[in-house]
Amino acid sequence: MAKAAAKTKAAGASASVERRPALAGRAVSAPGVKVEILPPAERISLRAPEASVPALSKALGVTLPATPKSSAAKGGRTALWLGPEEWLIIDETGNDPLADCAKISALHSAVGISHRNVAISVAGPAAAVTVNSGCPQDLSLEAFPVGAASRTILGKSEIVLLRTAADAFRVECWRSFSDYIFTLLSEAASDAAN
Amino acid sequence: MLLIRCPYCEEERPELEFRNAGEAHIARPTNIAAESDDDFEKFFFIRSNPKGVIYERWRHIHGCARFFNAVRDTVTDKFVMTYKAGEPKPAKLPGASK
């Protein structure tokens, strides 16, 4: 976290304002599961017709998935299928995917949403139970395998859920809902062990 | 909880992810300015509200966010089938032998 914060500060040195991620560094540990706020990442919301997908995949360095509820990851960059012709790109290495998209002329719409979202990691043997406390989807490994990604709801708020490992999830929520989501997951984490 | 099949996500999802969006297959008149008041009232306000099979628009708002059409029975609340937006009204419903 400290390293990420330092990097953010360095990157934002030219800007006049310092980036202050919501709930930075907060973490809750319970038996069987750990819920923690992940370091800031670069994100874009991408819409593009099928004809532009090869060019965009090349520019981003990651193949945009075409199957529902799937994702693709390469070199710290993850592309999540959200809907037909709609993706969420997350870059955890600090490279700006928006700049990569700007290089190509194929028709697309890329909107930077890095600061809009907050990512929460839910990891441990009870991770699925914890997320399921507020999310109605089937999170068994058969229905929601590693790499599966979906926009869904958690409690009363919309989230994007990505399974990063058999016992780990990445929950992406809007910044203004992050306090609610984090609190709900923390409470669920302490219940999950029982 | 109802499970609704989203034709875009190609699987059944919990109903909490969906929103109803009114009756389906209501075509907006091409020249709405020339509509008489009676015809406009019919197009704008009057819905079939049947007891039985209804064709509805639904939106997978907390999922792929797309609109699609669904055939639902208003008595049993069972979904007969769902199909993509823009596709014609199904001529024959699955399991409708009666």
Helix content of chain B: under 10%
Order of helices and strands of chain A: HEEEHEEEHEEHEEEH
Annotation field: number of helices of chain A = 5
Number of extended strands of chain B: 6
Termini separation of chain A (Å)? 30 Å
Describe the protein's architecture and organization.
The complex is a heterodimer of chains A (194) and B (98). Chain A is α+β, with helices and mostly antiparallel strands and 194 residues long. Chain A has helices at residues 2-11, 53-60, 97-102, 127-132, 178-192; strands at 27-30, 33-37, 42-47, 71-74, 77-83, 86-91, 109-112, 117-123, 149-154, 157-165, 168-174. Chain A is built from 5 helices and 11 strands; from the N terminus they run αβββαβββαββαβββα. In chain A, a hairpin with a 2-residue loop joins strand 10 (157-165) and strand 11 (168-174). Mean pLDDT of chain A is 91; it is low at 1-13. Chain B has one domain: 2-Layer Sandwich (Folate-binding fold). Chain B is built from 1 helix and 6 strands, in the order βββαβββ. In chain B, the strands form 2 sheets. A 4-stranded antiparallel β-sheet of chain B has the order 3-4-5-6, with no helix packed on it. In chain B, strands 1-2 form a two-stranded antiparallel sheet. Chain B is globular. Classes of the chains: A alpha+beta (194), B mainly beta (98). Chains A and B meet through strand 9 of A and strand 2 of B.
